[in-house]
Structure formats: structure tokens, C-alpha cells
Amino acid sequence: MEVDSVLDIAVNKVFTIYQKARARDFIDLYFIIKKYKFNLEDLIKKAKIKFDWHIDSIQLGSQFFKAQGVKDFPRMIVKEGRKGWQKFFLDEAKALEKKILN
């Protein structure tokens, strides 16, 4: 049995968030980026290539803003408050906004 690498899982999470944002995907991606020091911009580029799909920055930023309102929280093994990962995605949404406007 083959298992996806952590990088593949992170790329899949970016694409999943782009299509349908769920708390577990935000949380998984946040912890993967935090632990493995992946660059989100690189993950976005890799998702575009892997899925042969345009990932619109406005749509992705809009999805990142949704991290503030998701309610379908998974049972957490690692105790981490919502503020950390929600702030991370809010900051990333704002960074995408600045990139779009410049």
C-alpha cells in the first residue's frame, strides 16, 4: 500500500480548502505547515500543477476568510486553541489581498 507524502497531503489540503472549506482541512494544513515549514505559496503552485486547475487568488482568499466561521471541528488530539490557526488563515487571506491589489 502506498501512502501520500506529507507534501502531497498538504497540496491536497490546499486544493480541498479552495473547493470546500472545512475546519479539519484548515487545521490539518495549519499543523503541517507549522511542523514542516512548508511555504504556502509553493503549496498553492504545486496544487495548480497537480490538479491542472487554476486556483484563483480571490477565491482562495475568500476561502481562507471562512476559517473564522467554520463550526465542524474535529476531535483534537493536540490541544490548540482556534485562535492560532484561524489567525494564520486570516493573515494569509490578507496577504493574498495585498498581492492582488498591488
Q: How many individual β-strands?
A: 0
Per DSSP, the total helix count is 5
Number of domains: 1
C-alpha geometry? globular
Instruction: Give the distance, in angstroms, between the N- and C-terminal Cα atoms.
Output: 46 Å
Order of helices and strands: HHHHH
Low-confidence stretches: none
What's the overall average pLDDT, rounded?
94
- Portion of residues in beta strands equals under 5%
Largest sheet: none
Helix content: 55-70%
By secondary-structure content and strand pairing, the structural class works out as mainly alpha
Whole-number radius of gyration?
13 Å
Written account of the structure:
It is a single chain. The protein has 102 residues and is mainly alpha-helical. The protein has one domain (6-101). The protein is 68% helix and 0% strand. The protein is built from 5 helices and no strands. The chain has helices spanning 6-19, 23-36, 40-51, 57-65, 82-101. Helix 1 packs across helix 3. The protein is globular and about 40 Å long. The model has no long low-confidence stretch (mean pLDDT 94).
Brief summary of the model shown:
With 102 residues, this protein is mostly helical. The chain is built from five helices and no strands.
Notable traits:
102 residues; 5 helices; 68% helix; mainly alpha
SSE layout and pairing:
Blueprint: H1 6-19, H2 23-36, H3 40-51, H4 57-65, H5 82-101
Helix pairs in contact: 1-2, 1-3, 2-5, 4-5
